[in-house]
Design goal:
Blueprint: H1 3-10, E1 21-25, H2 29-35, H3 40-61, E2 65-72, H4 80-104, E3 106-111, H5 119-132, E4 138-146, H6 148-161, H7 171-177, E5 186-189, E6 208-211, H8 221-231
Parallel strand pairs: 1-2, 1-5, 2-4, 3-4, 5-6
Bound molecules: 3-methylbut-3-enyl trihydrogen diphosphate (IPE) (2 copies) and magnesium ion.
């Protein structure tokens, strides 16, 4: 994109009022590939590139947390070849992007039930978390084998396992035991479907929900600016009255 065009689209967004936390359901990789008569794996690879661009923009604009849905607890229902491709891609991506995340000051976290993955992948995830832990600019939460319902069940179980009294359980106790601790201000779903698909159900109670027909591999800087500009026009009441 030319500098002039970048300035025009950037002007749509107020740089002093960006959402602190953006959550994205990165949907549409398969249909993007189908449209080009390519295998679905081609779409997943392109989706990874789109994510790298979005991460760069979010760091540049001072977004504090970016949460992305990479693989759901329901995605195991897909053919084995696709599941294996996605899991292998996550492992390769960790190695290829880790240094650039460190250089950009991004803290990487994996959220979900990681125990189902083989030991090598779990080690790579934990090592990448440790290696990026000192980043000061943004936290990137990658949701893998993640489901919002499973997250709530696991939070309650962990609370009880740590000696918590089930009868005294509060919303704050559940929130403290979730994989992801902050609530998204802006939820974005690409790919044209208007549903949550089990993503951050607890945390999105008061998020602003933005849906776009754009397939994830096509989602870029201008699309993110459009989503943030839309968010900046919302009036958030949280059940109260207009400010
Ligand atoms: C999202 O794209 C990526 C994952 C679920 C892993 P899809 O693979 O769901 O693509 P569509 O929705 O079939 O086009
Ligand atoms: C949600 O997309 C999961 C991810 C983007 C990882 P899906 O493609 O799995 O959602 P549904 O099946 O259309 O609801
Ligand atoms: Mg999909």
């Amino acid at each position: 994109m030319s500098d002039a065009r970048a300035r025009v689209s950037d002007a749509l967004m107020d740089p002093h009022n960006v959402p602190a936390h953006i959550a994205i359901v990165m949907d549409g990789n398969g249909r993007w590939a189908d449209r080009q008569k390519k295998p679905r794996s081609f779409g997943h690879k392109a989706g990874q590139k789109a994510l790298q661009h979005v991460v760069t923009c979010c760091v540049e604009w001072g977004i504090q947390t970016l949460s992305v849905y990479a693989f759901s607890t329901e995605n195991w229902r897909r053919p084995n070849t696709e599941v294996h491709f996605i899991v292998a891609m996550i492992k390769t991506a960790i190695e290829t992007v880790k240094q650039s995340l460190i250089d950009a000051g991004v803290v990487l976290r994996f959220c979900g039930d990681l125990s189902v993955f083989d030991a090598d992948l779990q080690d790579a995830m934990r090592q990448a978390e440790a290696d990026t832990a000192y980043g000061k600019r943004m936290t990137l939460q990658v949701m893998v084998n993640y489901g919002g319902r499973a997250e709530i069940v696991s939070a309650v179980r962990r609370y009880v396992a740590q000696g918590g009294d089930a009868c005294a359980l509060t919303e704050a106790d559940i929130a403290a035991h979730l994989y992801a601790h902050t609530d998204p201000d802006l939820f974005i779903r690409t790919g044209g479907d208007i549903r949550m698909s089990n993503f951050m159900l607890w945390q999105c109670a008061y998020s602003e929900l933005y849906f776009t027909d754009c397939f994830w591999p096509d989602f870029g800087r201008d699309d993110l600016i459009a989503a943030i500009a839309w968010y900046q026009k919302r009036v958030r009441r949280f059940g109260g009255l207009n400010p």
